[in-house]
Amino acid sequence: MSDTEIHKGLAGVVVDYTAVSKVNPETNSLLYRGYPVQELAANCTFEEVAYLLWHGDLPDAAQLAAFHELERSQRGLDANVRRAIDDLPLAAHPMDVLRTAVSIIGANDPDASVATPESNLSKSIRLLAKIPAIVAYDQRRRRGQDLVAPRDDLGYSANFLNMTFGEVPSDVVVKAFDVSMILYAEHSFNASTFTARVVTSTLSDLYSAVVAGIGALKGPLHGGANEAVMHVFDEIGTADAADAWLDEALTEKRKIMGFGHRVYKNGDSRVPTMKAALDTLVEEFDAQDLLALYDALETAMEARKPIKPNLDYPSGPAYRLIGYDTEMFTPLFVASRVTGWTAHIMEQLASNSLIRPLSEYDGPAERHLPVRSL
Ligand code: SDX
């Protein structure tokens, strides 16, 4: 074996600069364009945070009004996208439905390959506006329910929830959902964002980079964990079964979904804010049993492994209480992270270099075919 140092999984490897966000495990903090994410969650809407990620500053009143108008005017589910979704089996995973729908939006955009900042910004807003309609319709069709049209008198989260459930829920639910969108929006060079940057580095188009990001986010080691957390909760059932379940799972060397993080080693900076949002939903829906299970599994894990919850741990139960089907949780992550992905796509293009790492060969030594008689 050669003495070349291999950085498996690129763990700990710094590959580029970014001005979009700063993940700081030492101080357990996360800044979006310099603002602590906790302050943004408490004082801003997801629309304002999307604007911040794309433009580098929060919008003033006039800029926000113009942004609202642009986003709200594009919320409808295009007929060709709806037909394509209807042609997909209900057994298709919602992440595959969403990936397909984004591909169709891209294939129908005559400017798909135009890579100017203005063109990519308008594609980004288009996806921000249209993904909720795709996710909401996909859940409703699985329940045999009709499409609910978007309303341009509602904010992003209230409209998303209204399209999903046919009514605007309480302010508590809308706020908790909006907080989750803000917390999921951006996280530097995570696997799906780096995937989007790799695709962008070849000068492929924004839609191709977003579709690739969706593919990467689907995995249970990454975005798919918020869905997997709820499958774990459903497997455990009640709080008093958490200890025994965890002992068996760890004996089987299973990765416990919603716990651990490649960068944060003393806890995910976003968890306290999302847990506080979950607590408001527990009170709103009187879901003490769910909270007891949440606490029991966290306590059981703490007693066995120094591995702390990540954002997916509180967000899964929150989406369950809000009423989303479990398989819809990661598409909700996409609805938010499309803002971070597209901010990084535009940043990558601004000072691009083809992303092409090296590998160390450890296959068969050079050998040759026997001479064949013709
Ligand atoms: C997200 O990168 C980002 O920023 C991602 C994200 C974002 O906003 O984009 O934050 C979103 O993806 C959060 C992570 C969601 N994934 C999960 O919840 C899945 C469960 N978590 C693990 O798969 C794991 O913690 C990772 C993949 C998230 C991180 O793993 P690392 O840093 O690569 O660490 P590792 O897998 O090398 O594990 C180190 C040790 C191992 O033990 P040993 O083999 O050395 O004895 O810790 C153990 C692991 O087995 N371990 C776990 C564990 N996580 C790590 N053991 C049980 N359960 C876990 N969850």
Report on the structure:
The chain is mainly α. Helices cover 57% and strands 3% of the residues. The protein has a single domain (17-355), classed as Citrate Synthase, domain 1, CATH 1.10.580.10. The chain contains 16 helices and three strands. Helix 7 crosses helix 8 (171-184). The mean pLDDT is 97. It binds s-citryldethia Coenzyme A. S-citryldethia Coenzyme A (SDX) binds at residues 9, 187, 190, 221-223, 225, 255-263, 307, 310-312. S-citryldethia Coenzyme A is lined by residues 9, 187, 190, 221-223, 225, 255-263, 307, 310-312.
Count of extended strands: 3
Order of helices and strands: EEEHHHHHHHHHHHHHHHH
The overall pLDDT, averaged over residues, is: 97
**Helical residues, percent:** 55-70%
As an assembly, this protein is: single chain
As for the number of domains, it is: 1
The whole-angstrom Rg is: 22 Å
Calculate the terminal CA-CA distance, rounded to whole Å.
39 Å
Shape assignment: globular
Strand content: under 5%
Catalytic activity: oxaloacetate + acetyl-CoA + H2O = citrate + CoA + H(+)
Pathway: Carbohydrate metabolism; tricarboxylic acid cycle
InterPro entries: 2-MeCitrate/Citrate_synth_II, Citrate_synth-like_lrg_a-sub, Citrate_synth-like_sm_a-sub, Citrate_synthase, Citrate_synthase_AS, Citrate_synthase_bac-typ, Citrate_synthase_sf
Organism: Frondihabitans sucicola
Summary tags:
374 residues; mainly alpha; Citrate Synthase, domain 1; three-stranded antiparallel beta sheet; 16 helices; 3 strands; 57% helix; binds s-citryldethia Coenzyme A
